Amino acid sequence: MRLERYNFRWSLEFPQYEFESIGPKGRIVKVVRFNRMKGSKDLYNLAFGDLDKSTGEIDDFVTSDNNDREKVLATVADTVINFTQQKPEASIFATGSTGARTRLYRIGIFLHWREISAIFCVWGFIDGKWEFFQPNKPYEAFLVKRQ
Hints:
Elements: E1 9-11, E2 16-23, E3 26-36, E4 43-51, E5 58-59, H1 69-86, E6 91-94, H2 99-111, H3 113-119, E7 120-126, E8 129-132, E9 141-146
Parallel strand pairs: 4-6
Antiparallel strand pairs: 1-2, 2-3, 3-4, 4-5, 6-9, 7-8, 7-9
């Protein structure tokens, strides 16, 4: 994708990515973690949000409102590309912490479908089952894997 994005720092050992959102609310540390899902060798949950400096945890319910949403989402997408370059066998599970955020992810996938589908196979979870991604369906979650 040819969208503007932030530079990130990463550690494959953890695996975690960090970057700073820069806007009217100042600098906000964002974190993307790929947590291996229990009972699976190659399935990872994508956790994303603001770093809670007091706990070191990700706050995925906060709304930063730093006027850089597209740049932040492009950066998160870039971390998925980077992570799956390092671990091409990995499948990435993602869902929003709210229905509105899940919808935002669906819209982002649709808007950048040409670039995404050239790299990844994408599935959406709806009505208790996985199907190949189709635009304008109210998916509850997404799964991506490198082609």
